[in-house]
């Protein structure tokens, strides 16, 4: 179904047609520009994005299916196809693997806003809790003056590392907290703690948040 040699209807040799370019793929995932699209058209958009090698457009299609509760096997298949077809243009906010609680992360994180700009960034890390009864995944909540990707690399290298991220960290999750980048430190400290508490209240396994 995905990334076949032939192009599906609606795709030209130079990429997506005007019909397939009906949304701004540079929008953040929380904007959900495809939220009103019927599933059949959404899947057609995904096929077109894969055939054209359009990573950002494909990411939005997968994200929307994920937010709607699409079967995990279908999300995993779509992710694998997108990485095969458009790895160079996939935005950093799209996770590399399926995990069930992503919609919950977005729903809760979007309740938090910061009024003041600054140098601090909120970040989330997907944790491997396959050895726990409440697994298989958990989330680490942190804040840093480094970018989320830089701070994750530091954790994994043992630099001021949280043990849970060093041992269990799988990947950084930037999408749910894209709106909480470059904010003032007092607000970052507050939101870090409150976001961690809110995620725990939602039943997630949460580390950090302090």
Number of strand segments: 6
Distance between the termini: 45 Å
Strand content: 15-25%
Structural domains: how many: 2
Question: What key attributes describe this structure?
Answer:
single chain; 210 residues; alpha+beta; 2 domains; four-stranded mixed sheet; two-stranded antiparallel ribbon
Layout of secondary structure:
Blueprint: E1 11-12, E2 15-16, H1 39-52, H2 55-67, H3 72-86, H4 102-109, E3 117-128, E4 137-144, H5 148-156, H6 163-168, E5 169-173, H7 185-201, E6 206-208
Parallel strand pairs: 4-6
Antiparallel strand pairs: 1-2, 3-4, 3-5
Helix pairs in contact: 1-2, 1-3, 2-3
Describe the structure.
The structure is a single chain. With 210 residues, this protein is of the alpha+beta class. The protein has two domains: 79 residues, no CATH class; 107 residues, no CATH class. It is 39% helix and 15% strand. It has seven helices and six strands, in the order E-E-H-H-H-H-E-E-H-H-E-H-E. The strands form two sheets. It has a four-stranded mixed sheet. Helix 1 packs parallel to helix 3 and helix 2 runs antiparallel to helix 3. About 8% of the residues have low confidence.
In short:
This protein has helices at residues 39-52, 55-67, 72-86, 102-109, 148-156, 163-168, 185-201, and strands spanning 11-12, 15-16, 117-128, 137-144, 169-173, 206-208.
């Amino acid at each position: 179904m995905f990334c076949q040699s032939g192009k599906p209807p609606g795709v030209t040799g130079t990429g997506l047609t005007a019909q397939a370019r009906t949304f701004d793929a540079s929008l953040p995932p929380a904007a959900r520009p495809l939220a009103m699209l019927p599933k059949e058209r959404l899947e057609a958009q995904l096929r077109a994005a894969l055939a054209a090698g359009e990573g950002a457009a494909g990411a939005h299609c997968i994200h929307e299916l994920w937010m709607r509760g699409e079967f995990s096997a279908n999300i995993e298949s779509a992710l694998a196809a997108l990485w095969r077809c458009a790895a160079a243009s996939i935005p950093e906010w799209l996770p590399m693997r399926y995990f069930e609680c992503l919609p919950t992360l977005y729903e809760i994180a979007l309740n938090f806003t910061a009024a003041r700009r600054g140098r601090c960034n909120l970040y989330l890390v997907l944790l491997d809790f396959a050895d726990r009864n409440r697994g298989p995944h958990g989330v680490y909540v942190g804040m840093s003056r480094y970018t989320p990707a830089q701070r994750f690399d530091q954790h994994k290298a043992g630099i001021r590392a949280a043990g849970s991220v060093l041992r269990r960290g799988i990947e950084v999750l930037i999408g749910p907290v894209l709106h909480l980048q470059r904010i003032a430190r007092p607000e970052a400290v507050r939101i870090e703690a409150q976001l961690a508490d809110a995620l725990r209240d939602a039943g997630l396994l949460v580390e950090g948040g302090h």
